[in-house]
Amino acid sequence: MSDENQNVESGQEPKKVSLADAIKNKLAQKKQEQHDAKANPQLRGGNSAVMRSQNNKKPNNQRRRTGGS
Question: CA Rg, the chain, in Å?
């Protein structure tokens, strides 16, 4: 909110960006982050969670245990 107030006070309107330009900028930013992550794999780009293997979901044995039809 304070950013909008500063732009109005200085007489500058917020810069309007087309949807295509916004998508291109976001994609370029994502590619840059991926490149940085590959260059230095130890930093892990702001994601502090440790990667773990994906365990498969255990089957539901309730029907077998209760003898359901």
Answer: 25
Non-local (6+) Cβ contacts of 52 within 8 A are: none
What integer pLDDT is reported at residue 24 of this predicted model?
96
CA distance 47 to 55: 21
Q: Which two tokens stand for residue 57?
A: 């979901």
| E strands present in 1-69 | none
Burial of 11 per CB tally in 10 Å (0-12, 13-18, 19+): exposed
Instruction: Name the pLDDT band for 28 (thresholds 50, 70, 90).
Output: very high
- Alpha-carbon distance of 52 to 65, in angstroms, equals 31
